[in-house]
Amino acid sequence: MRNPTFSLILIGLMLLLDWYVFSVLKVVSAGATHRTRAVLFVAYWVLAGLALVVLLFLPAINASGLPKGLRNFLFVSVVGLFFGQLIAAIFFLIDDIRRLLQWGAGRLFFSNTEGQQIQGGGIARSVFLSWLGLAAGGTLFGTLIWGMGNKYSYRVKRVRIQSPNLPAAFRGLRVVQLSDIHSGSFTDPAAVARGVEKVLALQPDLILFTGDLVNNTSDEMNPYWAIFSRLKAPMGVYSVLGNHDYGDYVSWPSPEAKRANLQALKDGQARMGWRLLMNEHVLLERGGAQIALIGIENWGAKARFPKYGRMDKAYPGTEAVPFKILMSHDPSHWDAEVRPKFGDIDLTLSGHTHGMQFGVELPGFRWSPVQYVYRQWAGLYEAGRQRLYVNRGFGFLGYPGRVGIMPEITLLELV
C-alpha cells in the first residue's frame, strides 16, 4: 500500500469485483421479498465498504496501537473477501462466456425473428453457476476466517524411522523435531506455552529445531525466551538457522546493526540451553555407540533464498559414523545437494514450507498449493536408504491461521 499507483489499481479491482458479485447477487435473490433483498444488499455494501476502508488505512492500522489479534483479523477479512470474490468471479465469467457464445450462435444460426428474440430478451444467467460461484467464494472467505482459530492447534505427528545403519544402542531413540516457530507472529504466550507442554509430555531423548525462530528480528523472542527455555532433553536441544533468522528481510541502518541482531539471536539460544550448529557436527553417544548430528546454515535451491550452508565444513569427520542426521532448514537442499553428494546421510530434517498453512490432508490424499513450488513439502519422503522429513511448522507467517495443515510437533522414533 506504500505505492500509490498499486493502491489505486488494487482499490479499482476491488470495486470492480464488488460490482460484479453484486450483479449476480441481484439475480439469485430475485425471488426473495423486497425487504429481504434490501437487507441483503445493504449488508453486502456495508461489508464491501468496510473492506475498502481497512485497505485504504492498512498502513496506519498496522502502525497503530491496536492489538495484533484485531489487526490480523482485519487483514484476513480484507484478503479473504478479495480472494473469495475473485474465486466467485471465475464462475461468473464462465457463465458470461457461455451467454456470449449462445448470443453469438443465435445471431449466426437462427432466423432473423429468433435472433431478434435472443438479442432483445437476452440470455439469462445460469442460476446453478451463480450459486456455485457464490458458494465457492463464500466458503473460501469463511474458511480463512475459521482457520485463524487453528494457529495454536498443535498436532503431534508420530513417525518411525527405520534404518539398518542405526546402532543397536540407539534403537528406540525418541527425537522431537520442531521447526518454524516464527515468534514474531505469536499473540498468545499462554497458547504457545501449551505447545511446549505437549513437547515435554512426549519425554523425548533429543530435541531438534530446524530454523526460523523469528520473522525478522531477535527482539521478537523477548516474550518467549522463558517459555522455550523449558524445552529440555537428556541428550540435549540442538538448532540451526532458517532464512528468516538472518534479518535479511529488514532494512538495517548499518551492517553492524544486522550483525548485532544475529548475534543476539545466537546468544538467546545459548541462554536457553540450545546448541546452535553453524556448519558443524556433533557426535552423540549412547551405550558406547555413536551417531552424527550435522547442522548447517540455511541452504535453499530456490534462487531467492540464501545459500549460507557449507556441507564442506559440516560433514568432514562424520565419514566413519554409521548413522547420520542432517538438520537443514530448506527441504530443497535434499534433492539439490544432499542426495547427489552425500548418499550416506540417513535422515535429513527440514521445515520452511509450513505446508503453506493451507491444504487438505486425508488418508491417501494430500494437497496444498505449495506442492507446485516444493516437491517435498510435508511429511516423510524416501529415496533408497535415505529419508527426509519435512515438519509443517510450529508457528505461522503471513496468514495468521491454519486451514487443513495444522501446526506440528514431530515425534521421530528411530528403529
Automatic annotation (TrEMBL):
The keyword Endoplasmic reticulum does not apply. GO terms for biological process: lipid A biosynthetic process. The chain crosses the membrane at residues 39-61, 73-94, 128-148. The keyword Magnesium does not apply. It comes from the Bacteria. Residues 173-355 form the Calcineurin-like phosphoesterase domain. GO terms for cellular component: membrane. InterPro entries: Calcineurin-like_PHP, Metallo-depent_PP-like, Metallophosphoesterase_sf. Keywords: Hydrolase, Membrane, Metal-binding, Transmembrane, Transmembrane helix. GO terms for molecular function: metal ion binding; UDP-2,3-diacylglucosamine hydrolase activity. CDD domains: MPP_YkuE_C. This is Metallophosphoesterase. It comes from Flaviaesturariibacter flavus. The lineage of its organism: Bacteria, Pseudomonadati, Bacteroidota, Chitinophagia, Chitinophagales.
